[in-house]
């Protein structure tokens, strides 16, 4: 149960860190690399702290990556009109 809590906490921390610090893909790849290093250490030594570190770094990676992907999908086409009055014209098809 503590492993799930560590993973979910680090996922949330990754989202918060990306939101406030704008870390970017290089930091996410660094977290993933550290996760892989700890995974290899755990594979050969079976020390539980390495498994926990692996979960934490993969959680951070997924949290940062999730926020990067969702913010990159936002349509910025209307950003040029911020602060201006804009008129939209449309047709109502059904009432």
Describe the protein.
There is one protein chain. The protein is mainly alpha-helical and 95 residues long. It has helices spanning 2-21, 25-45, 48-72. It contains 3 helices and no strands.
Please give a handful of descriptors for the protein shown.
95 residues; mainly alpha; 3 helices
Strand content: under 5%
Question: Helix segment count?
Answer: 3
Shape: elongated
Number of strands: 0
What distance lies between the first and last C-alpha atoms, to the nearest angstrom?
52 Å
The succession of helices and strands, N to C, reads HHH
Percent range of helical residues: 55-70%
**Which structural class matches the secondary elements?**
mainly alpha
Give the rounded overall mean pLDDT.
Answer: 91
Radius of gyration: 20 Å
Low-confidence stretches: none
Oligomer description: single chain
Largest sheet: none
Compact overview of the structure:
This protein is mainly α and 95 residues long. The protein has helices at residues 2-21, 25-45, 48-72.
């Amino acid at each position: 149960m503590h492993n799930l809590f560590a993973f979910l906490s680090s996922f949330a921390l990754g989202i918060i860190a990306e939101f406030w610090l704008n870390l970017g893909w290089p930091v996410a790849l660094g977290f993933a690399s550290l996760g892989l290093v700890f995974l290899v250490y755990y594979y050969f030594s079976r020390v539980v702290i390495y498994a926990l570190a692996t979960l934490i770094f993969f959680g951070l990676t997924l949290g940062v990556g999730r926020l990067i992907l969702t913010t990159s999908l936002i349509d910025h086409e209307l950003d040029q009109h911020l602060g201006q009055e804009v008129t939209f014209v449309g047709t109502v098809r059904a009432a």
